[in-house]
Amino acid sequence: MPTIKDVAKKAGVSPSTVSRVVNNHPRISQETREEVLQAMDEIGYHPNVIAQNLVNQTTNTLGLVMAPSTEEAFADPFYAEVLRGIGSMAQKNGYSLLLITGDEEGGELEATLRAVRGKQVDGLLLLRAKKSDKLTDKLNEMNFPFVVVGRPEEEDKNYWVNNDNVQSSKELVEYLINLGHNKIGAFIGSEEYIVDQDRLKGYKLALKSHGIDYNQDYIVQIESGKQEKAYRFTKDLLNSYPELTALYGIDDRIAYGAIKAVKELGFKIPEDIAIVGFNNNPLSELIEPALTTVDINTYELGRKATSLLIQVITEQVTSYCNDIVPTDLIVRESCGGKND
Q: Same domain for 119 and 233?
């Protein structure tokens, strides 16, 4: 059976360095850590995790706090892709994952604090950013390591990784405007989630920058069951405001529902109604017509958030910071434009 000395010889480091990597010592560089982990994998060395955790009072486990419910979360392709990024980085650094969900805010808070107080996790990834978030307030009060995937209200008092949703949304709507659209309906999500409000802000800024009046009547709020409700609400919106020439779904799943409704109403896409989405879910290039959307690089969001959390846990990072992952406008057939 391989030993720490065998790993050290394979990686070209001292046994004490291998021990530090196994125990997630903060003063080991990422490059050395990866070399030692690769050597461990190649020779089949597996540390006694249970004994190691008892000594270090760690679990080598990261907790994932999901959206309202498991059912809703796994219906959204965003979570599958962000989990792929999280899993890749966690595995590379020797961490397991624990899924934490709650059917409502109180349930989420209770389940998360139970995992923290029970020492089931070394740190948390919060896969959402909410207004007046009781969970982040409590975790900060407890001085427990966590990273938010999203933009928290108190940006300078949290670790977080996000896109610039305001600017990306503004650029998407401006693309529609430059195609000649000035009557643009928008389907937004819950006022509780900051990402939805940031994307709405970008929509408003785009209109303002082109001298177009904002019309609240063109805005439809969808809090859950996005695709099904978007299908119903699209018909209501277009029947009430036939002057609309474009629709913006703040989530691709909303846009899917809108496309189905527009087709059933007998309109052509994009000749009569242009439709755009956000997130670039895998299905977006397969539907008919293929959906113009914003790629938020979800995998990279998960990877960078996990890397930051591990650095916080191992005290490689000790001052609040954030990382902005760039986005890409993906132009397809649903808005009639051409991708440069």
A: no
Element (H, E) at 110: helix 105-117
CA pair distance 241, 264, nearest whole angstrom: 17
> Which amino acid is present at 25?
H
Distance separating alpha carbons of residues 86 and 331, to the nearest angstrom: 28
The tens digit of pLDDT for each residue in 183-222 reads 999 999 888 899 999 999 999 999 999 999 999 999 999 8
Same domain, 170 and 284: yes
Distance CA 114, CA 243 (A): 52
Q: Structure pTM?
A: 0.82
Residues 6+ apart with CB under 8 A from 257: 226, 227, 228, 229, 230, 231, 232, 234, 249
Largest interatomic CA distance in the chain: 74
227 found inside a domain: yes
Q: Does any domain span residue 266?
A: yes
